[in-house]
Amino acid sequence: MTGPLDGVKVIEFTEIIAGPVSGVMLSDLGAEVIKVEPPWGDPWRDGGGPFAEHESRPFIAVNRGKRSIQLDLTKDDGRAAAHRLIEDADIVVTNHRPDVPAKLGIDYETLSVINPRIIYAEASAYGLKGPYAGGPGYDVLAQSFSGIMSAEGIMWREVPRMIRTTPFVDFATGYSIVQSVCAALYFREKSGRGQKIGTSLLANAMTTLSGHLARTPGSPTKPQQWYDEDLPLLQEAGLSYAELNDLYNDARWWPSAMLIYYRPYQTAEGLIAVACLSDPLRKRMADCVGFEDRRFQPDYDLEAPESVEFADDLLLRVEELIIKKTSDEWLRLFHEAGVPAMPVHFVEGLLDEEQAQANGLVIEQEHYAGGKMQLVGPNANFSDTPLEAVRPSPALGEHTTEILAEAGFSAAEIAALLESGAALG
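Given the sequence above, the corresponding structure tokens read:
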């Protein structure tokens, strides 16, 4: 046994990011994952700047651990081959538009007749009900519709800029699929029944925003009050989106009282970040840096008008103090005092970080097109069932013949499928 899901078979009808993320995680957990690709392959093979034909680094990162079979599901024989794979499968994952699976014969209603124990996870853009139920979805659309993009407050050419470092709504949706199918596997062990699971980019975007979306009737937050009362008037007055976004983020911005203790700082030669979310930690930081914050006094009125000016002045004072020492000096002082602090890095250096390597988060795999590659490895450690990145991402249709043979197709049947174009590879 190489992982807790050893013996579990996953058939993945997915593309781009959210669905493939779930597949790579299930593979890390020990499942056998078969990626079913159309004749043209997963479009993400050519996304993010391909460095070889049908191979891009973003695709490789979220498709390692899988085998690839090419099937044309618009052909009867291609669908029949896919159905044969379902007979002994445990999990199916799809992230097509809601109307697509039925057209291709891979919807839950069809597959659950073939295998009543199948666990079918479907990720849509906005859910299966409501005015946008059938729409296509991508991370940038989830960011825009959910308000995440506006709330970040970073403008570019008079419009909000998406969070571009990582498609985090896609990744959150992939994690949700994994969580859900593992729960469904446990239920199936008790009941013997499979089931259909639905999640969406919208659902997971809202989950990440749950702290901001906790509404108390009769006691609105400042940004909620701005949204309800000011925004309609400002829109009627014809303000541009850039102007509205500035005012919105003024309403959302935390008072600087707490920002002193939870933010990055410039040091003598670099940057560090501190994270003190309790008064004991804040007092440790104040002692370590050498400033007095009288707001800790029991009788101090944080709502008093002078408190804003005091907080602004104190913030400048703290910045002046921290810039006098190097990052290493501050990190040593903060860590000795028990103040949470870390250096600010660039993403490109993370694979070389000793901390990441020591915890098995950096792996090396030999890829047929990329050669020896460093990638992010499994993100959890199991004491009894260690996780393993079993193989690099597959070439398009690399395992078509192998998978069909395992499914019981004879050499003649496989040849016929390849000849007809129902299977490729």
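The mean pLDDT is 94. Try to locate this feature in the token string yourself.
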